[in-house]
Every structure is written in C-alpha cells, then in structure tokens.
Amino acid sequence: MTDPEFSVIICTLNRASQLPLALDALGIAVGRAQQSIEVILVNNGSTDDTQQVMEGWAAQQSVPVRIVVEERRGLSCARNAGLAAARGRIIVMTDDDCTLEPEYFDHVRAAYAREPREVIRGGMVTLGDTRDIPFTTKLDPNPAELAPTAMPSGFIIGANFTMQRTVAERIGKFDERFGAGAPFIGSDDTDYLVRAQNLGIPILYDPTFRVAHYHGRRGMDQARKMYRGYGFGNGALFAKHLGQKRVRGWMVASVRAALRDVLGKTQHELIDKRDVFKLKHHVRGFVAYMRHRG
C-alpha cells in the first residue's frame, strides 16, 4: 500500500464533549483535500466517552482512521505514540481544541511545494472564541524563518505544527519529561525546536494555513496559570540545554527583560510585570530540572 501524503495526529484526554468540534472541522478539511490522508487519533488514557466519540467519528470517514490508546499520561507520550503510527510524507499535528480551516491541506501542500527542503513549518493560529484570553495564538500575516540562534518559544505553535516524516525521524521523540501531564508542564514544542536547530533544520512560519484555537481560558487567574506553566517549562529547558551558548544567552535576555520591568520601562497586556513573573518561574523550572536530573 502506498503511503499517504499526510498523517494528521490529534492527541486527547477526557475531551469527549469538546472533541466533536475539532473532528467535524477535520472531516470537512479532509473531504475537500486533493491529497491522500490518514488520521491518527491518540487517546491518552481517557476515562470519559472519548473512545466512543473517536470510534463513532472514525466509522463515518472515507479515509483511514487509526485510534491509538496511549495509557502513559502526558502530551509528549501521546505525540510519540502518534508519530510511531504515522506513515504519511508530511505530518500534521494539531490539538483537540482546534479547528482546521476547510482548505487547510491544499494550503499546506502548496507551502511544501514552494519550499521543498526538509523543515519544520508552523501555521497561523487564531483565537476561536473572542471571550478567551488572547493567548496561544500566532497571528503574524508575514512568513518568516527563525534565526538559528533565536529562542523558538512562540515562533510556531504546537496547535498548528507540520514537518516531513523524514524530519521527525531525524529529530526523534518528544522529550516525555516536558509538556502537559509531565513533570515540566510546558516547553515540549520548544525543546523539539531547539533540537531541530541543533541539527540545522530550518523552522518556518507560514500564515497561509490556519487553525482556530478554542482553548477556553478566561480571566487573569487563567492567564497567570499559563504564564506560570510556560515559564516553569522554559526554565527546565534552559537547564537541559545549559551547555549551549545561545541558550545561556536566552537566560541572560530573560534577566534583562525582568530588570526592564522592575525599572518600569515595559508595559504588558494581561499581567503587570510579566517578565518578572516569568523569570521567577524560569528559576523554579531550572532548579526543578537540576534536582530531577540528579
């Protein structure tokens, strides 16, 4: 059997009520695509009706749908299970609270046709519900390539993340210590991108293919929780890659940003003194990683 052009991976945990929104949009996009597609749904040990929702949706599709059960909790564990099952030339990863635009696959195919070298390519992520805090989005209208020494956090987002399967094979698995459900609750995508940089793999942003993110987080408490988690994960990331000069430069930049906050030279949306807040949790994550490693 010929391998498909695309493997779409969606990982989920106890999202039975929300998952149909993502799956219905995926079904529309798959139906409009001109390429061969397989869908891989990873159930990360759900205890609600997620499995039944997946099976019901899969039975209605005209493309191959594989349901993988990964009982080890953690988004990186689930992603690794999805990657192990993927056979497509291009891998697409999105989240269970995101909707793909109807022409998504045609836009991704065009992007890879324009630039055929081995890359990681992320797309635009819009806010699905305007009541949610403006976070975990990527709205830049201009394509860009990440500089080899630049911090990749936020340059592209895991909700709209693509790469050739050959790239995934070169980089290897997601570090299962990072990400939702893991000891270091953020920075799983960032760690993957740092490792891509280490191999000289270009990281591109392309606004032509889009998803909408319905993350459901509202209010300052939720904003602080997200910054706390991402800051903790980035601190652990700094510790993991401490031997690299550019990573030490990112740490210095974090301290300088906090100093500018202390001096009142910066203003931020959502959280006052945001960079001071982030630095505090960078330190927590750094210390936690060093203890965990020891």
Task: Please tell me about this protein's structure.
There is one protein chain. The chain is of the alpha/beta class and 294 residues long. The protein is 41% helix and 18% strand. The chain is built from nine helices and nine strands. Strands 1, 2, 3, 4, 5, 6, 7, 8 and 9 form a nine-stranded mixed beta sheet that branches. The radius of gyration is 19 Å and the shape is globular. It starts with 5 loop residues before the first strand and ends with a helix. The relative contact order is 0.13. The mean pLDDT is 95.
Topology, pairings included?
Layout: E1 6-12, H1 19-32, E2 37-43, H2 50-58, E3 65-69, H3 75-85, E4 90-95, E5 98-100, H4 104-114, E6 120-127, E7 144-145, E8 160-164, H5 165-171, H6 188-198, E9 203-213, H7 220-240, H8 245-262, H9 274-293
Parallel strand pairs: 1-2, 1-4, 2-3, 6-9
Antiparallel strand pairs: 4-8, 5-9, 6-8, 7-9
Helix pairs in contact: 1-2, 7-9, 8-9
